[in-house]
Design a protein that fits this description.
Blueprint lengths: L26 E5 L6 E5 L12 E5 L1 E3 L3 E6 L5 E11 L2 E7 L9 E4 L4 E8 L5 E7 L3 H8 L25 E4 L11 H9 L3 E7 L22 E5 L1 H12 L4 E4 L1 H10 L9 E5 L14 E5 L6 H10 L1 H13 L10 E4 L1
Parallel strand pairs: 1-17, 3-12, 3-14, 4-11, 14-16
Antiparallel strand pairs: 1-2, 5-6, 5-8, 6-7, 7-10, 8-9, 9-10, 12-13, 13-15, 16-17
Helix pairs in contact: 5-6
């Protein structure tokens, strides 16, 4: 299986640069898993596709303002850092630009000097391990100095940080938003629950894998970066009960999907726990947990294109994307939604 098999041509003007004022007013393409038919709706119409007894599984991770701009203490040269993963205490794995001069022992100062960092190690994949020093509370300093780490294809400045958070975000730790959930408003979620649909929370802190392109042509040799997940016992019970009662389990986003598939056994039982997952889902994978998926439109040749192709069938996905491009849907993080159900 080749990475190039998952390429499609996307007009640049279809890449959404700004979130819509009303989250739930985005368009929604429904691709039927039963017969491959396609419908064009708006996201608020999701209620018409859910049944009492179903369970929506959301990823409640919260994006931290993980992009920091500073300068090298020795030379004054500009440095950009993206916090990827907190390892222990004040030590983080980071992406650093420019990387050539970011050597072990280099010191970086941010803002007014209230935050500084020292590169303690250059990792095999080119990332850096940085130990931070500061006075006060790290999260408060980060909120003041950091920016939301928007993907490189978004060139507009985000006016409101909260628009890159889901309304149910609560567990801080992501370097990117689980963007399928951006379409939900609190009111829409209340309507979902009122009709008898369960809502369950899992956590997966989105990390480097979101930013790393597939660079190998042989799909099976691609190495996913590991991401930390949590499934609480109460939530696992709620999801398993849905399955036992004959309801459908619908993942909101590929991150929720990957968490469920990572934490479940072959017999389709979800187990509570936490840990690191580097699960890579591509065509040929047998899904153990989910019956439906709410997602966005993904980058060509990305691992997420491979995941949705595994779930809904590659031919169906490419036919749906062709239709979405023809009808000028908005693509990627701030774009429109795709319901695979």
């Amino acid at each position: 299986m080749k990475t190039s098999d998952f390429y499609y041509d996307l007009p640049k003007e279809l890449i959404a640069q700004d979130p819509l004022e009303d989250r739930s007013s985005s368009r929604m393409l429904h691709l039927s898993l039963k017969d491959g038919s396609i419908e064009h709706r708006h996201f608020r119409d999701i209620l018409e596709y859910l049944h009492p007894g179903d369970c929506l599984v959301v990823n409640d991770t919260k994006v931290i303002p993980a992009r920091l701009y500073g300068h090298r203490q020795e030379t004054g040269g500009a440095v950009e850092i993206l916090l990827l993963k907190r390892e222990a205490g004040d030590v983080w794995e980071c992406l650093v630009k420019p990387g050539k001069k970011a050597r072990t022992g280099a010191r970086i100062v941010f803002g007014d000097g209230s935050l500084a960092g020292e590169i303690t190690e250059v990792l095999e994949d080119g990332n850096r391990r940085i130990r931070f020093e500061y006075d006060g509370i790290f999260e408060e300093i980060l909120d003041r100095l950091g920016e939301m780490p928007l993907p490189p294809y978004i060139t507009h400045k985000l006016q409101d940080k909260n628009r890159y958070q889901t309304v149910y975000a609560r567990e801080e730790g992501s370097a990117a938003a689980p963007t399928a959930g951006l379409h939900f408003t609190r009111e829409l979620l209340e309507q979902v629950e009122a009709m008898g649909v369960r809502i369950a929370h899992v956590t997966l802190h989105v990390g480097l894998g979101t930013f790393r392109p597939v660079k190998v042509e042989d799909v099976e040799t691609h190495q996913m970066h590991s991401e930390y997940y949590i499934v609480e016992q109460e939530q696992a019970d709620r999801i398993n009960r849905t399955r036992e009662d004959g309801g459908r389990i619908i993942a909101v986003g590929t991150t929720s999907c990957r968490t469920l598939e990572s934490a479940s056994t072959e017999d389709g039982v979800l187990h509570a726990g936490s840990g690191w997952t580097d699960i890579f889902i591509y065509p040929g994978y047998r899904f153990k947990m989910i019956d439906g998926l709410i997602t966005n439109f993904h980058l060509p040749e990305s691992t997420l294109m491979m995941l949705v192709s595994a779930f809904a069938g590659k031919e169906n996905i490419f036919r749906a994307y062709e239709e979405a491009i023809r009808l000028k849907y908005r693509f990627f993080s701030f774009g429109d939604a795709c319901l695979l159900l």
